[in-house]
């Protein structure tokens, strides 16, 4: 192949992978929670998330990890905009780890992103990973969406 040649396209496309990661200062979230209290809790977190975080020994680190996952989700979108409120993405704890639950506005944004890549939400798997290190002062959220292209036969 010479410079400028376009590689041959193949019909068999691999999966579409969208990934976002975010790092949040636990102290920053603790300051927001201290300064704005229930106001920020109510705007940014669901009732279930608040109950989970408040039941932990160090709520700010758990809020920070969830905030990071929400931000990581928006980074998977084709048009990450303020149109997806933070509380529209919920981190749910299950026995096998954290999962995302999307409110209709977040679902619509992901649907649009996947449609641009000829994929549908029904073909998508969403993985979320959370981590926090109080001694380092940071929380990390990572979201990966893997979807397969729609078939046009």
How does this model look, in words?
The chain is of the alpha+beta class and 153 residues long. The protein has helices at residues 26-36, 38-44, 47-54, 59-74, 104-116; strands at 16-25, 89-94, 97-102, 125-133, 138-147. The chain has a three-stranded antiparallel beta sheet. Strands 2-3 form a two-stranded antiparallel ribbon. The two termini are 31 Å apart. α1 packs across α4 (59-74) and α3 packs antiparallel against α4. The chain has five helices and five strands, in the order βααααββαββ. Mean pLDDT is 88; it is low at 4-12. A hairpin with a 4-residue loop joins β4 and β5 (138-147). The protein is elongated, with a radius of gyration of 18 Å.
Q: Top keywords for this entry?
A:
about 150 residues
Give a nutshell description of this structure:
The chain is α+β, with helices and mostly antiparallel strands and 153 residues long.
Give the topology, please:
Layout: E1 16-25, H1 26-36, H2 38-44, H3 47-54, H4 59-74, E2 89-94, E3 97-102, H5 104-116, E4 125-133, E5 138-147
Antiparallel strand pairs: 1-5, 2-3, 4-5
Q: Tell me the strand percentage band.
A: 25-35%
Structural class by secondary-structure content:
alpha+beta
State the strand order across the main sheet: 1-5-4
The major beta sheet can be summarized as: 3 strands, antiparallel
Number of distinct helices: 5
**Overall pLDDT metric:** 88
The whole-angstrom Rg is 18 Å
Q: Spell out the helices and strands N to C.
A: EHHHHEEHEE
Outline the low-pLDDT stretches: 4-12
Distance N to C terminus: 31 Å
General shape:
elongated
Helix content: 25-40%
DSSP strand tally: 5
């Amino acid at each position: 192949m010479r410079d400028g040649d376009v590689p041959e396209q193949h019909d068999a496309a691999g999966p579409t992978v969208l990934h976002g990661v975010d790092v949040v200062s636990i102290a920053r979230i603790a300051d927001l929670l201290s300064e704005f209290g229930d106001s920020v809790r109510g705007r940014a977190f669901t009732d279930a998330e608040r109950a989970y975080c408040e039941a932990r020994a160090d709520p700010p680190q758990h809020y920070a990890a969830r905030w990071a996952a929400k931000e990581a989700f928006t980074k998977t979108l084709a048009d990450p905009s303020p149109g997806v409120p933070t509380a529209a993405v919920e981190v749910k704890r299950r026995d096998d780890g954290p999962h995302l639950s999307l409110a209709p506005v977040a679902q619509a944004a992901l649907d649009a992103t996947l449609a641009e890549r000829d994929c549908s939400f029904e073909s998508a798997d969403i993985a979320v990973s959370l981590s926090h290190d109080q001694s380092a002062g940071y929380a990390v959220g990572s979201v990966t969406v893997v979807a397969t292209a729609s078939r046009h036969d």
